[in-house]
Amino acid sequence: MNQKTTYAQQIKKEAKRLGFLSCGISKAQFLEEEAPRLEHWLKENRHGKMQYMERYFDKRLDPRLLVDDAKSVISVLLNYYPSETQGTETYKISKYAYGRDYHHVIKGKLRELYEFIQDAIGEVNGRAFVDSAPVLDKAWAAKSGLGWMGKHSNLLTQQVGSFYFIAELIVDLELAYDTPVTDHCGTCTACMDACPTEAIVAPYQVDGSKCISYFTIELKEELPTEFSGKFDEWMFGCDVCQDVCPWNRFSKPHSEPLFDPHPDLLSMTKKDWEEITEDVFKKVFKKSAVKRTKFSGLQRNIKFLKKADR
Predict the structure, then answer these.
(1) Which of this chain's residues are annotated to bind cob(II)alamin (predicted)?
(2) Within 10 Å of residue 287's Cβ, how many Cβ atoms?
(3) What pLDDT is stored for residue 64 in this prediction?
């Protein structure tokens, strides 16, 4: 067995020990297939008011512009599927935001993985990325054989579905590389048929500016009235395309205590949400990703849903 393979196996074993679902590795190079797709998506204004998507176009497509002399992209998946979910008669938040903000949880684990690489292998330079830098996470995870891109544009894995976070370490170390897996969506269009705002405009194409997650998290202004009554009671994010996906029958609850929700979260009724105070917001969402929308943003979303309910 050559050194590159030995190193790759050591890294994958450590990633598993740290609690990651899986780990795959691909060669750090320009994303040729993704470049025209991203350009077209931006030209069509599918990113809505997410101006940050227009920035760092070149860096999004080439990891060597993020890490000097980058050789490998190490992609990891971390499960967040909860053992319990909110009831049906309430305003909903996306399952990924139930517990502690994933950026901090994953960054800590990636830091440990990076330290392991330096201890076990030697002087390796690199950077950890968790959804907050110009890296096309899903593209790299697919290249690394961790799953395929579903028609809803989320990464899908036969064994566990899609309720997981994706993150990566980009390093200047050459490793043995994995190969992509085949697409197993077949003729299924469950996600496209179920999307409340028809944001999945074609297989593998999502109009971000029509997505409930975009409206409830990214959009900072008033919500457009033409979408009134189409939010399916989602007040932060949306899981519809994942909830209806047949592959998510295989989702298993995570084992990360930091992702467990605040005890009050699951029992809150519509009335509780409508009367939520800033103190309760701070208590229930302490260190949560929901803080991104701020108290005022969540209130705006709840008012929008309440109005449509009447």
Answers:
(1) 60, 131, 155, 166, 213, 238-239
(2) 13
(3) 94
CB 105 within 8 A of CB 131: no
Residue listed under structure tokens 């809150």 = 268
Is residue 60 marked as binding? yes
| pLDDT > 90 in the chain, percent | 83
Q: Which domains does the chain have, with CATH numbers?
A: 3-87+95-171 (3.40.109), 190-309 (no CATH)
198: left (phi over 0), alpha (psi -120 to 50) or beta: left
**Is the torsion defined by CA of 123, 128, 133, 139 positive or negative?**
positive
Which residue(s) pair with 200 in the sheet? 206
pLDDT tens-digit map of 162-201 = 999 999 999 999 999 999 999 999 999 999 999 999 999 9
0.85 surpassed by pTM: yes
Of 21-35, 42-56, 95-109, the one with minimum mean pLDDT is 42-56
229 CB-near residues (< 8 Å, 6+ apart): 308
- Was 23 annotated as part of a binding site? no
Is 131 one of the annotated active-site residues of the chain?
Answer: yes
CA–CA separation, 306 vs 234, rounded Å?
Answer: 11
